[in-house]
Amino acid sequence: MSPFPKMAELSQKCDYRKIISQAAEGPGLAFVVFTEAILQFPMPPLWAIMFFMMLLMLGLGSMFGMLEGVITSLNDSQFITLKKPVLSAILCGSASLIGLVFTTNAGQYWVSLFDHFAGGYALMCVAFFEVVAVIYIYGWRRFRRDLEFMTKEDLGIYWTFTWRFVSPTIMLVLFTCSVLKSLSNVPKYFAYDSTTVSDI
Fold first, then answer.
1. Using one digit for the tens of pLDDT, what is the confidence trace for 8-17?
2. Which long-range contacts (CB under 8 A, 24 or more apart) does 139-144 make?
3. 104-129 tens-digit pLDDT
4. Where exactly are the structural domains of the chain?
5. CB 200 within 8 A of CB 10
């Protein structure tokens, strides 16, 4: 049997206006809404190439920063004695293998799970403990002295007060409110159902 009737049936069920109205955030914003907007520009292929090259460069730049932060921390801690190129290859290979889950038919489902559950709490915890480690364990006086040595400028009391009290308090309040909101409102997401995914 020819696959063309199936394709025609699928395209009839597709309501692009509905898809665009529901995709105004996250990956849908970049890959659905912006793509539709680019089609309205003069010379759409040129703008599409520029836009997706910008996304690629943004992703690569973010990954370089994160990877360098992890590699530098592991090298400085001396827990791992591997050379930097070997450690980089292991970390990049591991990240690449883990990232393959996003290329499956359930890729959008995994992106949603990571976006909703892995990013927010983890980032807030890391930021909070970084502030605590630098200001209260390393010491705000040493940190201030290091910054003044590097910038050759005298730092005012505003920055010291912000590091010591304002930043940790705000992050702790945000984290507590996020956890309380998650406990009061049960998180909802669309479950992946392989029977509804079409093999085109």
1. 444 455 555 5
2. 140/164
3. 887 877 877 777 777 677 777 888 88
4. 13-59, 105-190
5. yes
